[in-house]
Design goal:
Radius of gyration of chain B: 16 Å
Number of helices of chain B: 3
Oligomer: heterodimer
Mean pLDDT of chain B: 92
Order of helices and strands of chain B: HHH
Structural class of chain A: mainly alpha
Low-confidence stretches of chain A: 1-26, 28-34, 91-110
Number of helices of chain A: 10
Strand content of chain A: under 5%
Shape of chain A: globular
Number of strands of chain A: 0
Largest sheet of chain B: none
Mean pLDDT of chain A: 77
Radius of gyration of chain A: 22 Å
Largest interface: A-B, 78 and 48 residues
Helix content of chain A: 55-70%
Order of helices and strands of chain A: HHHHHHHHHH
Structural class of chain B: mainly alpha
Number of strands of chain B: 0
Low-confidence stretches of chain B: none
Distance between the termini of chain A: 15 Å
Helix content of chain B: over 70%
């Protein structure tokens, strides 16, 4: 993300910009930039973005599996990202762009609090209080919502509302106000990628080894099949949803 | 060992690998970053950020909703 004094990076639909967007590089300038209609070339380029491809394929798989209610939000996210990347719209800011002070500077620990205040990081005590409030709210919410029958419309809405709110926040918010993480070592990042890819492949293999996409298999259970006994009861659903919401809170606050 | 056992063992092995990586990260070994650092890095751009959050939302819909 560009510092305020840096020259803004080229518009994403200009040479190299789309490639940068396609590889997840943040755009530099704020809402003062131009928002243009998507061009055919822009749509084609955006259509090759990995996230767009993943969500389009997921929507197709969900539809083929009979999960039509899930397919539509997946498709909506894919289309929204496709249009956004094709337009090369500047990323709106939820507030002033924070600078990126190097807290590893020689100033020492005494300046950390000042640095934290400058970039809007709440003091530790306030963060703990807010975290406790969020956790309590999640517990109350999941205790109530866990009573809804699984796969019912009330349960669906109970998931859609926080899910949509989180996606909307992710769309609009600037990256975390914490100092930007430095570049990751290739080996370390590759190790994590390998774990997630392995999990995805294992799950996909189990899904494809089912008799059909809509028929569960005891011999090749997917995570959904393994979770069925846990999610059959109120307590299991409440606990699982608590874990899900806490994971969402963790992600939203990155 | 049945196919069911092999499948479950695979899930457990991959999960254990994830926990192992995080343990290595906490010890500062082998240059393995914390999962939070990986996610923070990934979520610097809108497509990745929205994709990860939307993936999380879909998980909830898949397990609890229709």
């Amino acid at each position: 993300m560009a510092e305020p004094n840096e020259t803004p990076r080229p518009h994403p639909t200009e040479a190299g910009g789309a490639a940068g967007a396609a590889h997840g590089e943040p755009r530099a300038h704020e809402a003062a930039g131009r928002a243009r209609g998507p061009t055919l070339a822009g749509v084609a380029r955006a259509g090759t973005h990995p996230v767009v491809v993943i969500f389009l394929l997921s929507a197709i798989f969900a539809w083929l599996s009979g999960e039509h209610v899930q397919a539509w939000p997946l498709l909506a996210v894919a289309v929204a990202l496709l249009v956004d990347l094709a337009r090369g719209s500047p990323r709106p800011s939820a507030g002033p762009v924070p600078d990126r002070p190097g807290i590893e500077d020689a100033a020492g620990a005494a300046d950390t609090a000042a640095v934290g205040a400058r970039v809007g990081i709440a003091p530790a005590g306030r963060r703990f209080g807010r975290g406790a409030l969020v956790a309590a709210g999640i517990l109350v919410y999941t205790s109530l919502v866990g009573a809804f029958a699984r796969f019912s419309w009330p349960a669906t809405l109970a998931v859609l509302v926080p899910g949509a709110a989180a996606v909307a926040r992710a769309w609009d918010v600037t990256p975390s106000r914490r100092p930007a993480p430095g570049p990751l070592a290739f080996r370390g990042a590759a190790a994590w990628v390998a774990v997630f890819v392995a999990f995805a492949i294992w799950e996909l293999a189990a899904l494809l080894m089912q008799p059909t996409l809509t028929t569960d298999s005891f011999a090749h259970p997917t995570i959904s099949v393994l979770m069925n006994p846990i999610l059959a009861g109120h307590l299991g659903r409440s606990i699982s949803m608590t874990v899900w919401l806490l994971l969402g809170w963790f992600l939203v606050t990155r | 060992m049945t196919s069911h056992d092999v499948t479950v063992a695979g899930y457990l092995a991959i999960t254990a690998a994830g926990f192992g990586l995080e343990a290595l990260a906490r010890r500062g070994r082998l240059g393995i970053p914390h999962i939070s650092a990986v996610l923070s890095r990934l979520m610097q751009s809108r497509p990745s950020r929205v994709g990860i959050i939307a993936g999380w939302a879909w998980l909830g819909l898949h397990f609890f909703g229709r």
